[in-house]
Recover the amino acids of this structure.
């Protein structure tokens, strides 16, 4: 372990556990059980442990940790999706989601309580494609730059920009739709 | 990608959306998580290291056998020319360099 002389693995885990748990929790959604989250976080760190001899710097390790967390979350998401096909992706080109969306719900959306709004965002986040969700989480919650996200996902920076823009737009539209639906239900 | 890249309107909804996305969801780190994970990693480590050491030894041994075979064959050859000897030595040095590099590189 090249970094082991200065830092024990336990210290490395302690230093990064918050970030790993936080990222996994957001990527997997609020309905993920705590025990499941712990198992997945452990998997992330065990994968890191196997790769530790190749690291020469903290920055490289952080990027790699994000990459592992994203991969672990995606694997879990695919497994869950197979088990539960109820979720309809907003990315499905055939579903023509853009045409179905209402634009009149802006007022209704603004009237939502903060906690309710947060919950709707969390729910709609889970309906985006894994890449879009990952880009949003890394950019907004983890405050990673375009370049760092591009390195984490091994995609060009422009692709990150496009995914971010598209994801925000879809999320925005789905929020308007959800708010309109709640308004209709309430009245 | 053919998606429309028109700028997003800067309204109250955008501001609230950004705020919601920037608010991290509350997570609880289980007590002793780092210690448990480190212990698990230590427990799993020997097999990985053992494999790496075995691979490294196998590579070194194979190269050593190869060098001996090359030199032996060279000595057995009848009336070897100067060019053949130089080529043989160059090949042997190349193998030594490769062996050193393979045994010193970090294991994946």
């Amino acid at each position: 372990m090249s970094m082991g002389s200065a830092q024990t693995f336990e210290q490395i885990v302690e230093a990064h556990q918050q970030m790993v748990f936080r990222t996994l929790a957001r990527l997997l959604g609020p309905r993920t059980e705590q025990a499941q989250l712990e198992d997945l976080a452990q998997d992330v760190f065990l994968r890191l442990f196997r790769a530790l001899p190749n690291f020469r710097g903290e920055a490289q390790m952080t990027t790699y940790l994000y990459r592992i967390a994203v991969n672990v979350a995606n694997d879990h998401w695919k497994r869950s999706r197979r088990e539960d096909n109820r979720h309809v992706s907003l990315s499905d080109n055939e579903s023509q989601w853009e045409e179905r969306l209402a634009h009149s719900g802006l007022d209704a959306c603004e009237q939502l309580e903060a906690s309710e709004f947060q919950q709707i965002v969390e729910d709609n986040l889970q309906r985006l494609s894994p890449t879009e969700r990952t880009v949003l989480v890394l950019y907004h919650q983890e405050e990673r730059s375009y370049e760092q996200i591009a390195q984490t996902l091994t995609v060009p920076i422009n692709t990150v920009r496009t995914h971010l823009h598209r994801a925000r737009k879809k999320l925005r539209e789905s929020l308007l739709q959800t708010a309109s639906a709640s308004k209709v239900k309430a009245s | 990608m053919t998606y429309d890249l028109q700028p997003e309107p800067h309204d109250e909804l955008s501001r609230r959306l950004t705020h919601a996305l920037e608010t991290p969801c509350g997570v609880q780190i289980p007590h002793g998580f780092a210690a448990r994970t480190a212990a698990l990693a230590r427990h799993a480590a020997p097999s990985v290291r053992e494999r790496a050491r075995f691979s490294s030894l196998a590579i070194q041994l194979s190269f050593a056998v190869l060098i001996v075979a090359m030199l032996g064959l060279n000595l057995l050859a009848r009336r070897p020319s100067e060019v053949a000897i130089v080529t043989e030595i160059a090949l042997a040095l190349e193998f030594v360099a490769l062996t050193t590099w393979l045994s010193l590189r970090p294991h994946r």
In short: The radius of gyration of chain A is 19 Å.
